[in-house]
Write a structure and sequence with these properties.
Elements: H1 2-29, E1 36-40, H2 44-57, E2 62-67, E3 77-80, E4 83-86, H3 97-105, E5 110-112, E6 117-121, E7 126-129, H4 134-145, H5 148-163, H6 165-171, H7 179-196, H8 199-205, H9 210-225, H10 233-240, E8 248-250, H11 255-264, E9 268-271, E10 273-283, E11 289-299, E12 302-308, E13 310-313, E14 325-327, E15 340-352, E16 367-372, E17 382-385, E18 403-409, H12 415-421, E19 422-437, E20 449-451, E21 454-456, H13 467-485, H14 497-502
Parallel strand pairs: 1-2, 1-13, 2-9, 6-16, 10-14, 13-21
Antiparallel strand pairs: 3-4, 5-8, 6-7, 10-11, 11-12, 15-18, 15-19, 16-17, 17-18, 20-21
The structure holds flavin-adenine dinucleotide (FAD) and 2-acetamido-2-deoxy-beta-D-glucopyranose (3 copies).
């Protein structure tokens, strides 16, 4: 007995040594991590990049995150009489798995983001009105549109189903060097085709009626992307998921995810505006001349600069939005002049003039969201009752019986325009955004790799702009930067991943 166990022990020791030597060899092959990484932009794209870069490169790398305005970027709140409301990115889909995991890992909570009845107004009349009875909605929908609603649901579900493959690829550490390759890996040529065609022509070809596209699909594009059904079919599908049930938001405001990610990543926030990026050769402490990126930024009236091994740009590269100049790159880094759609969010506390939409008596109006068709010729894209970021139940009227309404519009609303929709109001705040790209298929996405160790996170917005898309892009950029740093070519742009990972546990 004793002997056998000694033998077993020595055998285990040998095995352990063998395993260790493999382990040690493998880690000896890993290049030392970079000293410093810069991320430009502290929205969800930049802060999720910081979070994943920390996971990949370990505790020693210094991560600086530059932000010239507020952490959160297009996730922000506006205050109405002491309560905060989402002013930018608001709703999150139940299958947005990165956002879901952030909330869980960062100890945050969620609040339901939907509720209330929806109507569609065409400029003259309500062409569709939701009822609080599920069965009545079904009958209404079938009556108006046959089974197109159901088919639409299946069309979207099929795209979403494929898109979800990205989570499996990312959990196995695979990265992609372009948005097109990422989309191809999840859905093949069919997916790339969705970037090349308008939603309108895609749905027409699939047999959906003009009436259905105009009354059911167009209003959803308008509220989510401020654009017509001439946007590309991929972003169209992403937008349609915004009509699913189970939508949620982060309690306390979606932007809290960004500040928590930044904290968890131990990133160093630098309040400043990046002006220039230039590649220069530096002699590091180790004595070797190394190519690094100099990041020149302005804080207050001071202009400062610092050197980085890796730089991630996590803001739209657009002169009006980020105004970053790439100096002396050979070949030069292409100009990105794709324009962004302006959207103005206006929050109004007041009493709606429901007669604008319906002749029914005020107390029988009952809708809490009015969407509009494309031909409605109105100056608003949508109007809806909203709940504060800390409220768990459906919105309640304040003591004077009024609600807080959110209007999206392409332009800033005048007092007179607001008064068209309200009997009276006592409070209005607004925020104008360059909200998301103006989608014009065939849609090309900007490169992710701008230069050797210089990456662009926001190119993914040209496929579709959403919080989850930025989180996916942030993860991808972190993985890509890591694998390229370590020369792991076999982890980048792999074909047939779906088949390959299907058999793996
Ligand atoms: C009105 C509106 C409604 C939306 N609704 C939804 C929704 O319901 N659901 C959803 O999923 N998505 C929604 N979106 C989209 C979503 O908000 C965005 O896709 C997402 O927030 C983009 O995050 P980002 O980090 O990529 O970019 P941003 O949030 O824009 O972050 C970029 C950051 O970089 C900073 N920056 C820029 N230039 C510099 C510089 N030179 N130096 C330093 N810092 C710089 C900016 O100040 C900014 O904070 C909505 C957007 C808007 C505007
Ligand atoms: C999409 O259009 C581009 C031209 O804009 C073309 O090069 C590409 O092959 C098309 N892709 C698909 C999948 O149709
Ligand atoms: C962009 O930056 C340059 C140089 O930093 C500056 O001269 C110019 O005014 C800026 N443009 C905008 C639109 O902010
Ligand atoms: C409410 O809207 C209707 C229809 O636009 C309009 O006729 C009416 O004057 C408005 N009421 C008030 C009090 O503004």
């Amino acid at each position: 007995m004793g002997r056998a166990s000694v033998e077993l022990e020595s055998w285990l020791l040998t095995l352990w040594l063998l395993l260790c030597s493999w382990g040690c060899l493998a880690s000896a092959e890993l290049r030392a991590p970079p000293d410093k990484i810069a991320i430009i932009g502290a929205g969800i794209g930049g802060t999720s990049s910081a979070y994943y870069l920390r996971q990949k490169f370990g505790k020693d790398v210094k991560i600086d995150v530059f932000e010239r305005q507020e952490v959160g970027g297009r996730l922000a709140t506006l205050n109405v009489e002491g309560q905060d409301f989402e002013a930018g990115g608001s709703i999150i889909h139940p299958l947005n798995l990165h956002m879901k995991r952030f909330v869980k890992d960062l100890g945050l909570s969620t609040v339901p983001a939907s509720g209330g009845l929806v109507g569609v107004y065409n400029g003259e009349t309500l062409v569709f009105e939701e009822s609080s009875w599920f069965i009545i909605n079904m009958i209404k929908l079938v009556w108006h549109y046959g089974f197109q609603t159901l088919r639409m649901h299946m069309w979207v579900e099929d795209i979403l189903d494929k898109f979800m493959r990205i989570y499996r690829y990312q959990s196995h550490d695979y990265a992609f060097s372009s948005v097109e390759k990422l989309l191809h890996a999840v859905g093949g040529d069919d997916f790339l085709g969705l970037l090349n065609h308008t939603l309108h022509e895609t749905l027409q070809k699939a047999g959906f009626s003009e009436k259905f596209i105009n009354e059911m699909v167009a209003p959803i594009m308008k509220v989510n992307y401020g654009q017509s059904t001439d946007l590309s079919a991929f972003v169209g599908a992403v937008s349609m998921t915004g009509a699913d049930s189970g939508l949620w938001a982060v309690e306390g405001g979606n932007k809290v995810v960004c500040s928590r990610l930044l904290k968890a990543s131990k990133g160093n926030l630098i309040s400043g505006s990046v002006m220039f990026i230039e590649e220069k050769t530096r002699t590091k402490l180790t004595g070797n001349p190394t190519k690094m990126y100099e990041v020149v930024y302005q804080t207050g009236s001071e202009t400062l600069s610092d050197f980085y091994d890796i730089v991630l740009v996590a803001t739209p590269l657009n002169q009006k939005m980020s105004n970053i100049t790439f100096l002396n790159f050979d070949p030069p880094i292409e100009e990105f002049d794709q324009s962004y759609q302006q959207i103005v969010t206006t929050l109004i506390k007041g009493e709606l003039n429901s007669t604008v939409f319906s002749s029914r008596a005020k107390d029988q109006f009952g809708l809490s969201t009015v969407l509009v068709t494309d031909n409605s010729d109105l100056f608003i894209n949508s109007i809806a009752i909203v709940s504060p970021v800390r409220e768990e139940e459906n919105p309640l009227p304040s003591t004077d019986g009024t609600y807080v309404w959110k209007i999206f519009s392409p332009d800033v609303l005048s007092k007179k325009q607001i008064m068209k929709y309200f009997l009276s109001y006592d409070y209005a705040v607004k925020k104008a955004w360059r909200a998301y790209p103006l989608y014009k298929p065939p849609q090309k996405c900007p490169s992710i790799i701008l230069h050797d160790r210089l990456y662009y996170v926001n190119g993914i917005e040209f496929a579709a702009s959403a919080m989850e898309m930025s989180a996916i892009a942030g993860y991808n950029a972190a993985l890509l930067a890591y694998h390229r740093w370590n020369g792991n070519a076999d982890m980048i742009d792999q074909d047939g991943l779906y088949e390959k990972l299907k058999t793996e546990l």
